[in-house]
Structure to design on (322 residues):
């Protein structure tokens, strides 16, 4: 079923979702190659998120016509996705978001559609868990994440609320980590307004080998640890092909990455690329035609981000935090 949560604060938008795919028997699939991006940035001014039937969602994406955006046919776009929701007997729900200058969020769910400033689609129990974590500002033990501050907090959007977005990220990660909610899993997929356009939000997530704040007195590089010992580092970035935006992830200890590439205007397919470094991975993704700009190619950026987190939270770092 999955979970996607979206909020509008004045004219800024922020969304978080998961990447887990369920098989027809509704049992969760955990292999990276089976990950699905459920929030799609179809164009700079428009994104669509879905929860439910992958088949019906794919039909909706394939049937979408870009000229509807150029001609500002909002009602036709809503009718298109609503008809898929209705004809599927409500097996798939949607959240539609228009960036500037329209600034609109539409929920398609429970047999109807409406303009709103907040929405969620997917597993109701998962959303209850999300809300509990969000309201209490609960933090996931043993891990932390860092959103690229130069992308988000300096997004040049006057209405963007970094604290709210950070709490949404943390709450989704807690839902993903909760074994009592098997319908939600994988990694967080964040989308937000950036300079008026919709983009995926770059972040890194890591669980490193244990160390404390004093470690940096004599060392610059972070002790990563190995995959065999349960440590990981994941880069979430994005690329674009001149029109749409595509999610890209790389697992450093696992030495592989996934580029969610265009698939005949349908839901982007996961392309698995096995390479030893993030630099080589980015080169391989660029060869597919996607344009990527990311600061993670420089290890000093990674080390500096973690150092900042460590110094900000000296006590928490004792438990093998990022």
């Amino acid at each position: 079923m999955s979970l996607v949560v979206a909020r509008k604060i004045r004219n800024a938008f922020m969304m978080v979702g998961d990447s887990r795919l369920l098989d027809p028997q509704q049992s969760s699939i955990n292999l990276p190659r089976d990950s699905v991006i459920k929030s799609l940035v179809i164009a700079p001014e428009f994104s669509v998120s879905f929860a439910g039937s992958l088949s019906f969602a794919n039909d909706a994406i394939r049937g979408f016509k870009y000229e509807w955006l150029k001609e500002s046919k909002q009602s036709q776009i809503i009718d298109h996705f609503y008809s898929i929701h209705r004809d599927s007997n409500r097996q798939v729900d949607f959240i539609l978001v228009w960036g500037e200058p329209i600034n609109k969020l539409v929920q398609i769910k429970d047999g109807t559609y409406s303009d709103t400033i907040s929405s969620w689609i997917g597993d109701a129990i998962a959303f209850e868990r999300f809300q509990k974590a969000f309201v209490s500002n609960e933090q996931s033990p043993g891990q932390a994440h860092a959103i690229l501050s130069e992308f988000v907090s300096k997004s040049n959007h006057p209405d963007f609320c970094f604290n709210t977005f950070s709490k949404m990220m943390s709450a989704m990660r807690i839902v993903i980590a909760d074994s009592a909610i098997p319908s939600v899993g994988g990694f967080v997929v964040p989308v937000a307004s950036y300079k008026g356009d919709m983009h995926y939000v770059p972040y890194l997530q890591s669980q490193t080998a244990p160390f404390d704040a004093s470690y940096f007195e004599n060392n610059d590089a972070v002790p990563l640890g190995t995959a065999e010992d349960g440590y990981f580092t994941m880069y979430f970035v994005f690329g674009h092909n001149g029109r749409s935006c595509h999610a890209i992830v790389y697992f450093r200890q696992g030495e592989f990455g996934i580029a969610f590439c265009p698939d005949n205007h349908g839901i982007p397919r996961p392309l698995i690329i096995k390479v030893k470094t993030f630099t080589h991975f980015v080169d391989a993704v660029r060869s597919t035609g996607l344009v990527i700009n990311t600061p993670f190619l420089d290890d000093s950026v990674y080390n500096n981000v973690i150092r900042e987190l460590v110094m900000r939270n000296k006590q928490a770092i004792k438990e093998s935090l990022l």
Notes: Confidence is low (pLDDT under 50) at residues 149-154, 314-322.
